[in-house]
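Q: Structure tokens for this one, please.
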Amino acid sequence: MAPPLVSVPMNKNKKPSLVLTLSAAGLLIGTGSVAYWLLAQRQMSSGDLLVGANIIPGDALFAVSLTTDPQQWQKLRQFGTKETQVELDKNLVELRDRFLTNNGYDFQKDVAPWVGDDVTIAFLAPNTASKPAPKPVTTNEDAASDQQSMVMVLPVKNPEIAKSILARPKTLKQGKWIDRTYQGVAIKQNQGQAGENFSAALLDGRFLVITDSPKATERAIDAYKNKTSLATTGGFAENFPKIANYQPFAQFYVNVPTAAKIAAASPNRPLPAQVLAQLQNNQGLAGTMTLEPEGIRFKGVSWLNPNSQRVLAVENKAGKMQSRVPAETLMMLSGGNLQRLWGDYVLTSQGNPLSPIAPEQIRGGIKSLTNLDLDKDLLDWMKGEFSLSVIPTTPKQGSPDDFRAGLVFMVQASNRQSAEASIKQLDEVMRNQYQFQVQPGKVAGQPVVNWVSPYGTLTATHGWLDGDVAFLVVGAPITDKIVPQPNNTLASNLPFQQTVPTEPNPTNGQFFLDVERTVKNFPLPTLIPNQQTLLDATRSIGMTSAVSDSRSNRYDIFIALKKVRNLTALPSPTTPSTTSP
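A: Here is the predicted structure, written as tokens:
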């Protein structure tokens, strides 16, 4: 099978769809079945950096590296269901035919003999992202330079073969090849229809650089020779090695400040100035994707701008909540410090139109519903580990099936006296404002308080675990599953152990979702296209995160996937005349 690798000339009307196709393919591959993007590998001259990092201009918006090993691509195709295999194969065939077959190339014959283990595709930000205002008059060349351009870096393991192919490229359907030189580097560039500006250059016999813009070729050469490449961008060389892995399937990098500038310049949804200023504190997001026997693993890292005044608190104190909930728990999300998490959310979300809920709305909602101040009355004592879990109930014969699961919130109190005062206020609000019955009770000999709605349709229970862990159960009556602490816990459950990464350790948060059991028993809202197809291919999802240091965060994610039985062969290449663009 031929992975999507080589760039060759294409018609003007295909150019936008190429970028969209690459983005969609990267999205599909990066999720495997449910998520999208991330990736990593070793580079010839830059150790554990992204392949071609010493060539890609430092202001690149996005870069993704993909393996050229056909066996890894075949392994990817084995994950999922027949439906996801059909969708993945559709993307792979489209990319293969567009890059190779339609232009007379065959991967095994024309590319495999000389290409390295990985290739990188990078998208450069349009020059307009850094311009204060558009020019009143632009030439064709200026207009081209203002568009998003693409750079492909292909490491060369056999320079002689690469040189011969570059010296005698395939005949163009329209136009002709011309030779030019820039900074002493020979460039092969096509000349024909307007908009066809593809060119190729061999740098030091080690990297074949292909772009869709003459300006992009020059920018790549400048970055390589002047050492203004991605490898020298603030924080990149220090953080990318944290996620290096042996023979990954892919790698990725996102330039957060550049992406923010482009979003701010968008006429449809511009970012407010204060949000843009906050995003400038962040510099990069990068990741590694590797294929394992039972699924796909991601190792991610994000880091702050080296010039940012903001620093991260290195506080990784989570990791106990999975031992407080039973093995049958469907979902658990935990964190190390709820107060600090809220503070970070406020910092990055205040005034941000892309935030799911504005902090002001959350504060106002809690105030109007409970008359409590979120920051002073609640979060002030919530400085310990917390968790939110969904635990299914055990149906009892003859009992109404109002709720099939209970939602459980737990938090370790840093000040129990303050916590009890706030909880007492909540009891009064539920009794006086909402006419709930507030009844003391006991579960397994331990005191609890039950809230019962006027019609008995909604119940909740709160109490304490181990002296300083407050809990609240809403929905199904599953308090007896956490009081006393269960013997068979989620932490000891095999699916949890096989899904949730053990690194980084110590951790400041974990996430687990048993997708198979959840989808089977509970309807889920549709959030993404083809959601059901992706969910049907997934067994479970796990994540572990930690603050790596005062400037960076680490994330490990594992997606356990089903496998396709009787895998069919990828459709053979068709001739250019019969292949759809």
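A few notes: DSSP finds 17 helices and 20 strands in the chain. Residues 1-47, 128-145, 576-581 have pLDDT under 50 and may be disordered.
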